[in-house]
Specification:
158 residues, alpha+beta, 11% strand, globular
């Protein structure tokens, strides 16, 4: 599936020395440890969904946005978003960024823009999208799983 993005796409400056950003081996090591998949909240959600009797695929490359969990049979996907990377309470958090503001603000806002584009495209092709914040999963796992399970049960009843 081709990725079509909005024309007024946010431009993120390159993170390199020419732009005034300095990378060090230490910074590289820290950034390399940030997980993009199989995070603790994802694993907890998947385990609970499996225990509820639902089977799924993970990190599907076939769909735009590469959803964390794909329930093909039900045309349903689940994203579990990190608060920092996807802009939770963004207007508040944006003010707290102290270093490399130009890069980080553009980076997070582009991530948020991409999330909206992905949601719209998936909805357009008939796929139900669920998005949860990592903290939601950590604090209210049962509620989040129930929300998805109720949707899936409605579809089974049809």
């Amino acid at each position: 599936m081709s990725k079509s993005y909005a024309k007024d796409r946010i431009k993120v400056p390159r993170f390199n020395e020419e732009s005034g950003f300095y990378t060090t081996p230490e910074r590289s090591k820290i950034m390399g440890k940030i997980k993009g998949k199989n995070t603790k909240p994802e694993l907890a959600f998947r385990k609970a969904l499996w225990a509820a009797g639902y089977r799924y695929r993970i990190d599907s490359r076939k769909l735009i946005g590469r959803p964390d969990i794909v329930l093909n049979k039900y045309k349903t996907v689940v994203f579990i978003d990190g608060e920092f990377w996807h802009g939770h309470n963004w207007e508040e958090r944006k003010l707290k960024i102290k270093t490399n503001k130009d890069f980080w603000i553009a980076k997070i806002e582009r991530n948020m823009q991409r999330d909206h584009e992905v949601n719209a495209e998936l909805k357009r092709i008939g796929i139900k999208v669920f998005r949860f914040w990592e903290n939601e999963i950590k604090k209210e796992l049962e509620r989040c799983v129930q929300e998805v399970v109720l949707h899936l049960k409605k579809l089974e009843g049809i």
